[in-house]
Write a structure and sequence with these properties.
Layout: H1 2-11, H2 14-31, H3 44-49, H4 55-58, H5 68-86, H6 93-111, H7 120-134, E1 139-142, E2 146-149, H8 153-163, H9 169-187, H10 202-208, E3 236-238
Helix pairs in contact: 2-5, 5-7, 6-9, 6-10, 7-9
Length: 260
């Protein structure tokens, strides 16, 4: 069974595997009290004045304490990140990493002017937005009541958060950054007079792109043969738990901050 789990784990695309594993390990470290959320959240003052550079990354890795909300977010993140990597970014790992950097930098810059302390939720919405725009004909299902096509998914999630009384700033940030990437990468280069503005650095291509595709690679069923979900699998049901997606976005009460 251990060998089977290891094989399945190694079948996950590299970027998706690395990101989701980092998120799980970060949450495990917090649960084991090896670290605290106060050491992870985005704080420009501590980054600039105390050189706590790791906060630029760790604020994207923590999705709250272990529980249903965390599991829901991990499933959501894993699914859409993997479908992007296996779909439109298949064989283009460097471009996928560049999208991560593009989104992370823009969200960090926005975080300098807003009270956002963990940006992982916005990053997930960005991935959902890009996937949904590149798969416009996939049919989605919300609680078995609302049917819609994939491009409406980010907005449905935002509306659901609003109905539950949660802040939608984090959703809007993810949608905004996702749209900027989609526009610059997919729309503007195909317009009259347009050109490709997002160029993946050569160093990323040298590090991540391989000359040949792994013959043992196994994509998700819905992405095989490069096709969108068909038939009964065209329906994606969103499960309860979205109301907890922003619970951990409140400002942490860092005891060290009170004495600085």
């Amino acid at each position: 069974m251990a060998n089977s789990f290891t094989q399945e784990y190694l079948q996950i695309p590299a970027v998706t595997r690395a990101y989701t594993t980092a998120c799980v390990l970060t949450t495990a470290a917090v649960q084991l009290e090896l670290i605290t959320p106060f050491q992870l959240y985005f704080n420009p003052d501590l980054i600039i004045k105390r050189y706590q550079i790791w906060r630029l990354v760790t604020n994207f890795l923590f999705f709250g304490p272990l529980g249903f909300s965390f599991m829901f977010n991990m499933i959501f993140l894993y699914r859409y990140c993997r479908m992007l990597e296996e779909g439109s970014f298949r064989g283009r790992t460097a471009d996928f990493v560049f999208m991560f950097l593009f989104g992370g930098v823009l969200m960090t810059l926005f975080g300098l002017f807003a009270n956002l302390f963990f940006l992982g939720q916005a990053f997930t919405i960005m991935l959902v937005y890009v996937w949904s725009r590149r798969n416009p004909y996939v049919r989605m299902n919300f609680f078995g009541l609302l049917n819609f096509q994939a491009p409406f998914l980010p907005w449905v999630l935002m509306g659901f958060s609003l109905l539950l009384g949660n802040s939608i700033v984090i959703d809007l940030l993810g949608i905004g950054v996702g749209h900027m990437y989609f526009f610059l990468e997919d729309i503007f280069p195909n317009q009259p007079g347009g050109r490709k503005l997002l160029m993946t650095p050569g160093v990323l291509r040298a590090l991540f792109d391989t000359p040949e595709e792994d013959p043992a690679y196994s994509p998700l069923p819905e992405d095989q043969a490069g096709e969108s979900w068909q038939g009964a699998s065209d329906e994606e049901e969103l499960h309860p738990g979205q109301d907890e997606r922003h619970d951990h976005q409140h400002e942490p009460q860092d005891p060290d901050e009170q004495h600085r």
